[in-house]
Amino acid sequence: MNLESRVLESRFVRLEPFTETHEAGLRAACAADPDTWNRLYPYSMLGEAFDPQWARLRAEQARGVTIPFAVVVGGAVRGMTTFIAVDPANNTVEIGATYYEPSLRGGPVNPSAKRLLLGHAFDAGAARVQFRVDALNARSRAAVLKLGAVQEGILRRDRVTWTGRVRDTVVFSILVDEWPAVRDGLDARLAGFA
Questions:
Q1: pTM over the 0.85 mark
Q2: Per the count of CB atoms within 10 A, which of 44, 131, 138, 154 is most buried?
Q3: What's residue 160's pLDDT?
Q4: Euclidean distance between CA atoms 111 and 88, whole angstroms
């Protein structure tokens, strides 16, 4: 697997690998939904917590551990999504650290972004793409299932969030032999958006 850090684009969304030009826009996008950061994410990107998390993501990007993308819609940064735990030796990668401004949820942005990321991963040689979601995050769990991923199980008491809550993590995956059906389903779904 050889994942490249490059721009991915469709008619609904443009995914741009993080650069310093995305920092201010992402800060503003994250500030649009404090409740989500306070309840559902393992770390915060609100207020003074933004800078250390931005620095962490950029450092991981520089080491090739992750490939973070700014989610650009209408020319503005409206969220982020990331290839996490890139593991070329085992041809696996995780898609996560995904956040969208509330106004983008439920429309074509998430399925379009996931279509781009999944296509890029499988075209690069991935055998497995996984998603790990907080068990309390019903919206994200439903969205991952709607993509066509298979729920594999729940890792109990898997992670301590920044608020001190211990979360259970639901693991989903899509395997390379499942990708053609998932791809066709996503393409049909996206064709339904004006």
A1: yes
A2: 131
A3: 94
A4: 25
